[in-house]
Amino acid sequence: MTATPRVRIAPSPTGDPHVGTAYVALFNRTWARQQGGKFILRIDDTDRTRYNPDSEAAIFRALRWLGFDWDEGPDIGGPHAPYRQSERLAIYRERVEELLANGSAYRCFCTAERLAALRVEQESAKGHLGYDGKCREVDPADAARRAESGERFVVRLRVPSEGSTVFRDELRGEITVSNAEIDDQVLVKSDGFPTYHLANVVDDIAFGITEVVRAEEWLISTPKHLLLHRAFGAPLPRWFHVPLLRNRDHSKISKRKNPVSLDWYRSQGYIPEALLNFLALMGWATKDGEEVFDLARFGREFRLEDISLGAPVFDLEKLEWLNGQHLRKLGAPELYRRLSTEGLLPAGADEAGLSRILPVVVERLHRLTDVAEKTRWYFGDPEEPPVADLAPPKKTLADAIPVLRETRAALEKLPGFDGPSLERTLEEVRARLGIPKPQLFMPLRVALTGRPDSPGIHEVLAALGPARSTARLAAALARVESAAGAGGAR
Which of 183, 401, 427, 475 has the most beta carbons within 10 angstroms of its beta carbon? Predict the structure, then answer.
């Protein structure tokens, strides 16, 4: 490689911003930043039937949430503006006229009805599916007259009828495709809009794209793109087709089996560092096998040629684990900022309180959305659990009465509420009652937090302090005594 890298992504504004866009953008942007090149955002909005006017802003918002920036794009401009393909129609018309003039393309007047009948015929014969070239030999001058008279047409690529097209994928090596297997691709639709194939190649040439890093589903289209580059007399980029993200059954990731919207991952409390770490692992690995790493390390060590060709499974359990690992690195001030930004700050929480409670709950956090749930008992009054939950394991509700009573009395006498004192006091209560730890700790845990699962009981007591701890034990004791006295010991 000698040219300064110029790479791009070209998402379509047809729905929610797709996690696959972030996956490909990660490799493109990292390569550009590492090599001192340019990362370009182009909007492929030529599919007007599926165009969603809100989708473009959602793409910008999602990519920026991940921490991506770009050097050229629709929102910031650049030397090759415009960067929305719907605004480049005059450029495509001009370039397709070149193809018509040099014989690399031709007008096709076949109706939709004829093409449908042709497909039925080909399927019945179980032969090759694709356009049969009926209009290839229409005299260009006659075709031009028919077009000027208003007859509807599309423009097709004239694929050589014999031989093969050979190209190199930098991850897979040399690939040879028989020209008989390449369809005369439509380049301009009957509505005058270019197809992806024409717009993609024209823009890649205009923008000076040096590496095309995209999903492997476009591998089958690469021979057509190569033929277009040659028809325009343009140099070829290097092609890298990265493996598709896949569901557990190894089918292509889709919203029917996995969430694919970047907005969904944000709303569910995943953080950019974890999602990018996860996406990097879908196509790359560190030399030492370390799975938890930041974007800085990825940026130093990543090479396009090192992208793996395995079939990466989009495992949400793995992502959740990674998210927990990265959450624990944030620290209270940054966690507070993120929670505030995402509207997930627990009711009544402030930064000082979060700093105090974070060490107690941090190992139980997997997403930002967990924070409110895991700290509700600290920042406010916990939800009142069913009274039966206060019973010790394998015991009756009445057996909780001495546990709550003795513990409350012992805590009220404590001069200090530090960890060692609490641990020693609870051990003395347990020995006095002659019960195992679970039968002591479970009623206390439910009384103090409203939940059967919580951090260590000593940590909970220390975090709540003496006044709140004894008050909650007293309230739970009153409930148990009332229920047990009314025959609710079971």
Answer: 401
- DSSP code for 308: -
Confidence band (pLDDT; 50, 70, 90) for 49?
A: confident
What is the overall mean pLDDT for the chain? 94
Interval 135-153: pLDDT, tens: 999 999 999 999 999 999 9
Angle (nearest 5°) at CA 140 between 136 and 141: 155
String of b and e for 356-366 (b: at least 16 CB within 10 Å)? ebbebbbeebb
Q: Are 371 and 365 in contact (CB under 8 A)?
A: yes
Fill in the DSSP letter of residue 399: G
| Active site residue ranges | 255
38-41/6-9 β-pairing: parallel
By three-state DSSP, how is residue 107 classified? strand
Of the CA atoms within 13 Å of residue 331, those in its CB half-sphere come to: 2
Name residue, tokens 């001192």.
36
Token digits of residue 261: 């919207």
Residue 244 clears pLDDT 60, i.e. is over it = yes
**Cα separation values, 426 from 209, 316, 323, 389, Å:** 69, 40, 35, 20
